Amino acid sequence: MRLQIPIAIGFLAGFFMLVQFFVPHQFFQQSYLELFDWVKIIGAFALVLGLGSLFRTHIDKIRNRRPDHIYSFVTLISFAVMFVFGIVYGVKPHTSFDWLFKNVQTPLEATVFSLLAFFMASAAYRTFRARSVEATLLLTVAVIVMLGRVPISDYVSFVDFHEASEWIMSVPGMAAKRGILLGVALGVVATALRILLGIERSHLGGGGGGSS
Amino acid sequence: MPEAAGEINAIWGVSTEVIGLWLAALLTLAIYSFLYGDNPVYKLAEHIFVGISAAYGAGIVYHQVLIPELINPLFRPALAGQDVPKYSLIIPGLLGLMVLGRFLRGHEWISRWPIAFVMGLGAGLSIPRSMQSLVLLQMHGTMQPVWPLVTAEGWVGVDNILMIAGVICTLAYFYFSLPHRGVMGGMSRVGIWFLMIGFGAGFGNTVMARISLLIGRIQFLIYDWLPTIGIHLGGPGVG
Amino acid sequence: MLPPMAMWEKLLYFDRRIIFLIIAVAVLVPFLTGWMLPQGKITATTQHLFDAIEALPPRTPVMISFDYSPSSMPEIQPMALALAHHILSRNLRLVAVTLVVTGPQMADAAIMPVAEKLGKQEGVDWVNLGFKTGGAVLVTQMGEDIKRAYPADARGNSTQNLPVMAGVHNYDDIGLIIDLASSAAPGTWIVYAHDPYDIKLAAGVTGVMAADYYPFLQTGQMMGLLNGLKGAAEYEYLVGQTGFGLLGMSAQSVAHLLIILFVILGNIGYFTSGRHRRQQR
Hints:
The complex is a heterotrimer.
Chain A: H1 4-22, H2 26-63, H3 69-89, H4 96-126, H5 133-148, H6 161-170, H7 172-196
Chain B: E1 10-11, E2 14-15, H1 16-32, H2 40-75, H3 90-99, H4 112-142, H5 156-174, H6 182-225
Antiparallel strand pairs in B: 1-2
Helix pairs in contact in B: 1-2, 1-6, 3-4, 5-6
Chain C: H1 4-12, H2 16-33, H3 44-54, E1 61-67, H4 73-89, E2 93-98, H5 103-118, E3 126-131, H6 136-144, H7 146-149, E4 176-181, H8 185-197, E5 201-205, H9 207-210, H10 214-219, E6 224-227, H11 228-239, H12 244-272, H13 275-280
């Protein structure tokens, strides 16, 4: 029963949406808007799940005195400070919550991701090799697109890099992207069908399998 | 809500804006210290980020989802513009609490009900629409006129042939139910070339994107932070 | 003196921190010297978005979905600022929504300074509706009833009474949707808003994602696209506002030339040092 009931719930919810799509009767229109409200609320609780595993990891680290467990205190204290500001004083502009987001979270997140610029430059030097015809083609296209994306290439008169890169993106590049997209889309539809029919059960995870 | 209580304009005569810019600049440099090598300052900054961003999500979800969608309509109907509480929301409220069953050792199965509901509904919503938008309309877009080869607008017909061949050959490369020999082998080989062009274009754009992220941080340091120590090097809307 | 092969070998394997330093200096110098390249050609997909906004009658609501986080702010925020300026200065209404949790703050950071400069009022000329969970479900619900999807804005004000939302029932009342995204959100907007409700849709995305959306431009499922910092710079140029996009393009140019030089040098080293033959064996 622990597995059958959820599978039945999933099937009914999905089947209802399919019927609603093909039979746009007022009853279905009204009730599907109601169900959407429910999904938004359940989704909010699902985000709390992520917090649970964050706490578990850091509390375990502290409890077992693992190396660097001192930093786990930092994470938990940062969380507590931001959480209290958010819940007590709200999240509107000019609150402490907003100030911390702007001056702590924003620079940290943006800077961590900007590190990629350095690692990419290093990789360009060390690993991007024209080892084969295919790799040479990839590198050549990449160079054309790189030049087409900056104004400095407008000073070169013999090739219009801007036009060339737009053509690559919209004709052969687009064809490849579409080929991939069609494959992925069919995969998405197939997976959705498997979920609906209860064949795909990995999302039900937790609590061991079995129908006990 | 005591919103104003969370707002402080200055500390010891220094505006909170300037303090914020210095804090942001120091944290930026703390992260960049990683480029020299892993170090405690970087680790400290990294762990602050994890804590702050998790709590940020919780704060936003509480104020912008749970309050207007669940708490107000159910417990404070006047604030939600209703005369009576919307009792039907007890169901998603309970289902939401059941999600947290994941944390109860031995009772994790409780969370299956709400997850099955959300996933099933999402699947039912997605099947016809994804099929329509991502498969049928994309196939429709691929079926373009290829004759006459040279139209008034230029080489449109040639581009179309190239595009159609590209889509088919890329699909052939990913089609594993037939051995890649003979015609199929040739098509999948051409498919690889198209994929390489696609990845090359993606790579060129990725270089642009990564460099832009670095430029963004440099712009912050130069246009926002340097002025706090009296150095002005222009900026948006200047010059 | 080292023989050429050994020299290249050595060149290939110096401390990568030297490369880090070179790239940092290359990006810094254009800013320190104030060197600024004039804006080059405008991509057609950028022009299409600009023209679509130009064609909207006054007070038409334009919806921007802020689906990005600080990690891609340098690329997307300049677009958001230029778009907010274009929309508000043309006396259109701006409705901000978001499918990602960091979106509400991104929307405020883009709209508030522009609105203040142009003397536009929150709740009358623009509104930040904030974040909701649900993704595809939320987008579909807005197609039926925006005020049900968003009973309140990000500040907690009821959307029923907001002047900016007057007459806005669903997508039929919106002139254009623009998705500014660093995630797969534009796909959600295509599948659940553009196609079923036939609403005009454009996007501004990070360079990493741009190529993924060309198939949708060709089918007309998307009418415009801003591609990374280049797209932002182009839009700033069209709107006549020098922002972080245009200011960044010189540094971007230098960095691209440098990366290309790295690729070439790396390959020369690879082939002259004989490593390619060793690897083939």
